Amino acid sequence: MNMNPSPSARRLPMTVLGVLFLAVMLFPVYWMVNSSLQTSSGAANTAFFPIRPTLEGYAKAISEQGGNFVTSLTIALGSVVLTLVVATPAAYGLARFRTRGTNVFLLVLLVTQMIPVMVLANALYPLFNTLNLLNDVTGLILANTAAGIPFAVLLIRAFMGAIPRALVEAALVDGAGHLRAFLSIVVPISKNAIVTAALFTFLSTWSDFLLALTLTSTPDVRPITLGIYDYISAQTQDWSPVMATAVLASVPAALLLIFAQRYIAAGAVSGAVK
């Protein structure tokens, strides 16, 4: 008699364990959505299921936090565009033209990823104060772009370094300049890496708290992260609009990850394979 368990039986414990881990990780998300659909005096007193769901919290969140939502969207999209405009040609130059000091420059970019955001925010504050960029959307776009460019350059360069040089050289032989070859050949081939860099920049900017807290001090320019922070102290007796705001703030990031997950997977690993 064969006493060895079948492959499906051997996988069952790991499947159960994976489901348990997934349930633990998703429970805060469920509780956030559940609390947003109920009217209660406190988060701890919220029923486990929304027996009588209501959208009053969402209506209040949209009316009071809609402006902050638009501000965050403007800052995130502006940071993505500016980051890609700077990082994409910089990554191409570092991958295509090997000059003395390139490795040192790449090391400096890597080291910048280890600098805490608070250090960057404190360094930018006196500069932005001199340039009158405090409490300004443009200032927050520039600050988040400065924080996002190093990672975007490293990610896109890793992918462009794997592009066969013969493709670019063939375009140059046919009469195309470096700019034409870059726009017509390198950028389309590097689409996965560029989209991945754009998504990471968007998510980092969308969830930014420290830069916004340091570089703004008026309610006129308030990203959604600061809006939720201020909302908690003002709405501690009614968590429904607070949770509704958190749910709405999670929607853009979730949609981007769902629709662009194949680009993220391809862009994140392709640069390591030649």
UniProtKB/TrEMBL annotation:
It is a multi-pass membrane protein. Residues 69-260 form the ABC transmembrane type-1 domain. Keywords: Cell membrane, Membrane, Transmembrane, Transmembrane helix, Transport. CDD domains: TM_PBP2. The chain crosses the membrane at residues 12-33, 69-92, 104-125, 137-160, 181-203, 239-260. The keyword Signal does not apply. It comes from the Bacteria. Its main location: membrane. InterPro entries: BP-dep_ABC_trans_perm, MetI-like, MetI-like_sf. It is found in: Cell membrane. Signal peptide: none annotated. Pfam families: BPD_transp_1. Belongs to the binding-protein-dependent transport system permease family. PANTHER family: INNER MEMBRANE ABC TRANSPORTER PERMEASE PROTEIN YCJP (PTHR32243:SF18), MALTOSE TRANSPORT SYSTEM PERMEASE-RELATED (PTHR32243). This is Carbohydrate ABC transporter permease.
